[in-house]
Each structure stands twice: as structure tokens, then as C-alpha cells.
């Protein structure tokens, strides 16, 4: 692992310009609020193609991701610790980040085998964040994916250690299992993922979210929370997949912008479902945001405007896919609609 990392760092420093052109940071591309006003206009018609078998595609990807995750985290000594790691990781779910990562890799001409280790690592890291998010010192949730949360089953101490180990394993898994990817591309993809998780990403969003409970929060402050807690990880999933798949700078930036819109649409829709959904379909208790005094889009702009905003974000995301081959873009087209509950 150390040898690969040293080679990757050397390659990244010396050959990035040759491989990517003048590569720049591909983080959040918007410097102003995505909510412009209450007068929202839909720019493009949302009409999923009847030709592409999206449900079959999604089911197949989830099955392959679940199989790869099961193999990546075997049950071994210490047994309880590995049970805790596997418990939430293998609990099911939509596998959003990993599916986006694979879809973006395939969109730019790569294949699933190239990017599966990275897709698995993304699931390990997002699982660690979810387990931490559920802890008593954070959201203190009892249910996740229709099952008792990790700390309710294994205790707080074991859950915290499991979080750490899932992140450590994610790094090891990417570096030891990724094959046939140029080292400079691999290290850049890793940088994008871990940058999205740290104090410039998920951690910042989680911190701001935690310290905003029970307070008056502006729309701009709410967007900061969602952009960092949710959007950046979705952007990193897409960007890392495109980098590993051999994407150009223009393709990577298009997918970054797509992820910005889709990620926020996902979070806005999640806010809506916390009000209008059901525990059976969502696999969690509802109304938690209101009970904890959290700011949400429905709370600040109302349910109707929140739904209009989510639709506009999806429409804007789809516009970014017009640059790509339509057949290859079909999975991301349908994923954008499904993320916000429109198909």
C-alpha cells in the first residue's frame, strides 16, 4: 500500500497536467445561493425515457455493490466489532453514492470493475457518517433502514470504533483493490473523496447542523448545511468515478455541476419526506427534524415551494447531461429524477 501511495503521489505531482490538462479543484461550482426567489420556473421537461430499464439497472448495481461489500468486510476476530461494521453497512438501502460513482465512470468510458473498490469505499465512509449521525450526542436516532440503529444494538463505544475502522478500511480498500487505474488519477480521486468528508465538507455541515438546532437559521445558512453535509459527498462520488473512468476536465466539471444540483434536490426532498412520508417507506421515524428544532426547506419556504425548488434542481441537473452521449447518460438522467421522487 505504501509503495502504491508513494507512486501515486509522485505521479500526481509530475503528470497531472499531462493526464488532465490544466486540472483545477472541482469542488462546489456555485458561489451564491441556489434559491433565487419564490418565482421558480422549470427550464426543462422531466420525462424519463421509456426505453431504458432503470429499475433493472438499479437493482443489478445494488446487487453487485452489496456482494462486493460483503466480501470486503468479512466476519472475523474481534467478532463483535466486525458485526458492528457489517450491521449498518449491509443493512440495505439505495446505495446512492456508489451507484452514482459507477454510473459516472461508465458515462466517460470506464467500466464497473475499475471503480468498484472506490464505490465500496464510498459506502463504507457514508455508513460511518450515518452511524455517527445516529449517536446520542448527535441526532440520537433509534431507527435506521427499518432496524435499530448501530449504537442501540452494539453500544456507543463499539459503534464509535466501528466508524473509525470503516474509514480506515475504505482507504486500504481503494489502494489495495483498485486495478488498471493510472496512479495520478487514483490519488486525485482519493483527494476529492476525503476532501468532501473533512472540515471543508461533511464534517463542516454536520457541525453547522448540530449547532443550529433550536435557532433561527437563514436560507443561506441552511444551504451551507445541506451543501456540506450532503451535496459534497454526492459531488465527490460522481467526480471520483469520472476521474477513475478517464474523464476529461470538461466531463468532470459537468458531472460536478450535475452533482451539486442533484445533491441539493435529494436533501430538499428528504426534508419534504420528513413531513409527508411514512416510517414504512423511509425506514426511519418521521418528524425528527421538527422535534430537534432543525431548519428545513419546508420550514423556511413551505412544502409547495420546496417541491418546486427540488423539481427545478433536477431539471438543471439534467441540463448538464446534454453534453454527453444520451445512451450513456440514461442512468444519471433517471437517477436524477428518482432521487427527488419524480419517477
From TrEMBL:
The protein's required cofactor(s) are namely: Mg(2+)
Does the entry feature the keyword Magnesium, yes or no? yes
- CDD domains, per database record: Trans_IPPS_HT
UniProt entry tagged with the keyword Mitochondrion = no
Q: Which residues cross the membrane?
A: none
Q: Which Pfam families does this one have?
A: polyprenyl_synt
- Which keywords does the record carry? Isoprene biosynthesis, Magnesium, Metal-binding, Transferase
Q: Which domain of life is it from?
A: Eukaryota
Q: Which InterPro entries match?
A: Isoprenoid_synthase_dom_sf, Polyprenyl_synt, Polyprenyl_synt_CS
List where this protein forms a coiled coil. Answer: none
What Gene3D superfamilies does this protein's entry cite? Farnesyl Diphosphate Synthase
Q: Give the similarity note.
A: Belongs to the FPP/GGPP synthase family.
Q: What is this protein called?
A: Uncharacterized protein
Q: Which organism is it from?
A: Xanthoceras sorbifolium
Q: Give the lineage.
A: Eukaryota, Viridiplantae, Streptophyta, Embryophyta, Tracheophyta
Amino acid at each position: 500500500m505504501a509503495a502504491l501511495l508513494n507512486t501515486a503521489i509522485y505521479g500526481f505531482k509530475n503528470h497531472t497536467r499531462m493526464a488532465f490538462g490544466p486540472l483545477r479543484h472541482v469542488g462546489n461550482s456555485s458561489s451564491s445561493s441556489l434559491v433565487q426567489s419564490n418565482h421558480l420556473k422549470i427550464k426543462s421537461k422531466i420525462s424519463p425515457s421509456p426505453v431504458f430499464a432503470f429499475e433493472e439497472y438499479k437493482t443489478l448495481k445494488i446487487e453487485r455493490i452489496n456482494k462486493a461489500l460483503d466480501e470486503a468486510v468479512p466476519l472475523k476476530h474481534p467478532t463483535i466489532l466486525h458485526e458492528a461494521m457489517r450491521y449498518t453497512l449491509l443493512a440495505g438501502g439505495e446505495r446512492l453514492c456508489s451507484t452514482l460513482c459507477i454510473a459516472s465512470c461508465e458515462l466517460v468510458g470506464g467500466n464497473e470493475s475499475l471503480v468498484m473498490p472506490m464505490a465500496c469505499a464510498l459506502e463504507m465512509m457514508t455508513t460511518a457518517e450515518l452511524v455517527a449521525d445516529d449517536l446520542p450526542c448527535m441526532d440520537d436516532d433509534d431507527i435506521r433502514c427499518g432496524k435499530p440503529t448501530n449504537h442501540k444494538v452494539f453500544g456507543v463505544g463499539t459503534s464509535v470504533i466501528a466508524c473509525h475502522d470503516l474509514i480506515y478500511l475504505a482507504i486500504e480498500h481503494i489502494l489495495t483493490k483498485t486495478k488498471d487505474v493510472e496512479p495520478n488519477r487514483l490519488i486525485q480521486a482519493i483527494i476529492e473523496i476525503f476532501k468532501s468528508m473533512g472540515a471543508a465538507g461533511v464534517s463542516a455541515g454536520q457541525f453547522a447542523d448540530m449547532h443550529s438546532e433550536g435557532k433561527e437559521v437563514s436560507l443561506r445558512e441552511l444551504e451551507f448545511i445541506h451543501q456540506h453535509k450532503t451535496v459534497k459527498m454526492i459531488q465527490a462520488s460522481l467526480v471520483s468515478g469520472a476521474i477513475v473512468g478517464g474523464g476529461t476536465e470538461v466531463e468532470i466539471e459537468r458531472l460536478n455541476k450535475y452533482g451539486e444540483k442533484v445533491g441539493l434536490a435529494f436533501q430538499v426532498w428528504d426534508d419534504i419526506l420528513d413531513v409527508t412520508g411514512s416510517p414504512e417507506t423511509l425506514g426511519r421515524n418521521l418528524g425528527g427534524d421538527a422535534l430537534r428544532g432543525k431548519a428545513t426547506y419546508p420550514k423556511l419556504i413551505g412544502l409547495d415551494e420546496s417541491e418546486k425548488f427540488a423539481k427545478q434542481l433536477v431539471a438543471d441537473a439534467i441540463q448538464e447531461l446534454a453534453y454527453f452521449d444520451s445512451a450513456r447518460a440514461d442512468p444519471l438522467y433517471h437517477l436524477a429524477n428518482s432521487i427527488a421522487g419524480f419517477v
